[in-house]
Specification:
- The structure holds two protein chains of two kinds.
- Chain A has helices at residues 2-5, 7-25, 29-51, 74-105, 110-119.
- Chain A is mainly alpha-helical.
- Chain A has one domain: Helix Hairpins.
- In chain A, helix 2 (7-25) runs antiparallel to helix 3 (29-51) and helix 3 runs antiparallel to helix 4.
- Chain A is elongated.
- Chain B is mostly helical.
- Chain B contains 18 helices and two strands.
- Chain B has a two-stranded antiparallel ribbon with strand order 1-2.
- In chain B, helix 3 runs antiparallel to helix 17 and helix 4 packs parallel to helix 10.
- The mean pLDDT of chain B is 86.
- Classes of the chains: A mainly alpha, B mainly alpha.
- Chains A and B meet through helix 3, helix 4 and helix 5 of A and helix 5 and helix 6 of B.
């Protein structure tokens, strides 16, 4: 019953798990970054759903309706926007680092990179 | 407006560093900005002791909200003060580690990092705090990869991804608290929880678990420390000093604030699940004290050894927080200060040794005393403080930890404390003894190089920090009473 009424939250938690496992267990750097993004999306989904109230509209004032019963809670959406900005910059930074690592080692496999750097210089 | 002035000064300096790219100009800008910020935070410490400073723009919960209590002002002064010495030290040391075109970026990152750390401690609204936590992760990862060697990139990527994972956990905890309380500021959450707790205990527990795991990951509490040795040992020496001395502490202080200002000691200690979480933090901290030291014993690379020693020192701080007593919290705060002053001395002097002898292996460091007296004396001061020898600051903090343990009646922790001090001694003292009594190996290829002492001008900031270790140990009265005022204002 809880799963049916709260399926947004359940989906968010399952996505979070998928992302977390992908981030930790995948060897490929790009897949790791995808895992990080899935995890972020899970948090945003969780956050955005809790601000949503069925039957209400986006909090944009049209036709002079200003009473708050007409709108969903805008604060979680604003928090999600902030989070998306941060997530985009993280992805960009991480991808730039992966690119640099690929230039140095010629592979994106974390295990191979670890092996190569251990055999290398001090 | 003092807290805003501090943060803006440092951010402005970061921007100026990127505009004026000339070499001496960026150093001057960075050092001057840190000095100005340090003076301002001392003034702020004085002002906050009389009355909390608050700056509010906009209405709760979506606002820009700064509230500076004495503890926040203390942390801001610690960050800007130690940051000043580290930036001053990097003026002489960083040139050998990174290419000249990257120097402006380095100083800009340094200023931005200290600015964001000050922001993390002074902001009251969690949205502001979260943004600054993320920004500080970026700046810190930037300081790791600035050397542009493959191993730095690898360590930086690991640091970045785990650090972001930690922030996600903290964000999740904050969101859960927001759903219960409809407030995003620490005071708002506290006010709302005090009459809103009934029926929401489970959510508060979940939030605290998320926040605890997130903070433990970001501040490298054992077993979540896996990113720390790589990041701290590959970064240039001044970067390691600031990462280890200051960055870890900001997240620990955020945790203290969430525990004692947002949730509050009365709820925290009376709910059995919440106090169990706190107890688990204490036990994990005690494990980290031993495990970090054991891992440090196994290292031969001097910078990795110091990095693992950080893992063990972070364990002390979490143990103090987990005790759930005022004295335990005081011990944790005092150790934050002790470690923030001591660890940069160790990292900077070790970095100096590595750079002058081109050797990171502690086995090959015999006889260094004869040639690098000042550097070795500085390293020894740091090592003795870490072990907890009287007359050095580490002793004071171990003393208050012992007092806190007796006060909270977890007597078995006294054994852990003593054993951990013994382990600290067993990996720091061999380096010192080998340097003083060991014979310099003439067959070593190092013998060809004269490995001269670094000019005193470049070592001056490290000497200042090392003398602070002794000054704070002998005259700890004012600091102690200030921290106690701070703790009594949030407890």
């Amino acid at each position: 019953m809880g799963l049916i009424t709260n399926f947004y939250e359940a989906t968010a938690m399952i996505l979070f798990g998928i992302g977390f496992v992908t981030l930790l267990l995948q060897k490929n750097l790009i897949k790791k970054i995808i895992g990080l993004n899935i995890m972020d999306s899970a948090i945003f989904l969780y956050l955005a759903t809790t601000g949503y109230i069925t039957g209400r509209g986006a909090p944009i004032i049209i036709d002079g309706i200003v009473y708050q019963d007409a709108y969903v809670n805008p604060l979680p959406s604003a928090l999600v926007m902030t989070g998306i900005v941060v997530a985009v910059s993280i992805t960009a930074f991480a991808l730039a680092l992966s690119l640099k690592l690929y230039e140095h080692y010629g592979t994106l496999d974390m295990d191979k990179i670890a092996l190569m750097s251990r055999g290398g210089d001090v | 407006m003092l807290p805003i002035a501090i943060i803006l000064t440092l951010f402005a300096a970061a921007a100026l560093c990127l505009i004026f790219k000339a070499d001496p100009a960026v150093k001057l800008i960075a050092v001057a900005a840190h000095a100005a910020a340090f003076v301002l935070s001392l003034v702020m410490m004085h002002a906050a002791a009389a009355e909390p400073i608050s700056v509010i723009l906009g209405a709760e919960p979506w606002n820009f909200y700064v509230l500076v209590t004495p503890l926040d002002a203390f942390m801001a002064a610690l960050f800007t003060g130690v940051g000043l010495f580290i930036v001053w030290a990097s003026a002489g040391m960083i040139g050998h580690d990174i290419d000249a075109p990257r120097l402006p970026a380095y100083y800009a990152l340094m200023c931005a990092l200290v600015a964001t750390l000050c922001g993390v401690v002074v902001f009251e609204n969690f949205v502001n705090v979260f943004l600054l936590v993320e920004a500080s992760s970026f700046a810190a990862a930037g300081l790791v990869i600035i050397k542009n060697k493959p191993e730095n990139l690898k360590a930086g990527l690991k640091y970045l991804s785990l650090s972001i994972l930690g922030s996600s956990f903290i964000l999740m905890g904050i969101i859960i608290l927001y759903f219960i309380t409809d407030a995003l500021s620490i005071t708002g959450i506290y006010a709302s929880l005090s009459h809103n707790l009934a029926g929401n205990e489970d959510s508060v527990r979940n939030a605290l678990i998320f926040i605890t795991v997130g903070t433990a990951l970001k501040s490298a509490l054992f077993p979540l420390h896996i990113w720390l040795p790589d990041a701290h040992s590959t970064a240039p020496a001044p970067s390691s000093a600031i990462l280890s001395g200051l960055v870890l502490k900001a997240y620990i202080f955020l945790y203290i604030k969430i525990l004692h200002k947002a949730i509050g000691a009365d709820i925290l200690l009376n709910d059995h699940v919440l106090s169990t979480i706190l107890g688990a933090v204490m036990i994990t901290g005690a494990t980290a004290m031993i495990a970090g030291s054991v891992m440090a014993l196994l290292q031969t690379d001097i910078k990795r050894l110091i990095a693992y020693s950080s893992v063990s020192q972070i364990g002390y701080i979490f143990m103090g927080i987990g005790m759930g007593t005022q004295l335990g919290l005081f011990a944790a705060m005092f150790h934050i200060l002790a470690h923030a002053v001591t660890k940069p001395v160790l990292f900077l002097s070790a970095g100096s040794i590595v750079e002058q002898t081109h050797n990171r292996d502690i086995e090959k460091m015999s006889g260094l005393w004869a040639r690098m007296r000042v550097t070795m004396a500085l390293f020894t001061t740091g090592a003795l403080s870490m072990i907890g020898i009287p007359l050095f600051m580490g002793f004071n903090s171990k003393w208050v930890f012992a007092a806190g343990i007796i006060d909270s009646q977890h007597y078995w922790l006294l054994g852990v404390l003593a054993f951990s001090a013994l382990l600290n001694g067993s990996y720091y003292l061999p380096i010192v003894f080998r340097a003083i009594f060991g014979k310099f190996n003439t067959e070593d290829e190092l013998a060809d190089q004269s490995a001269p002492e670094r000019p005193l001008k470049e070592l001056a900031p490290v000497i200042c920090l090392a003398s602070l270790i002794i000054i704070f140990a002998l005259f700890s009265g004012p600091v102690t009473s200030y921290i106690l005022i701070g703790i009594s204002s949030i407890w």
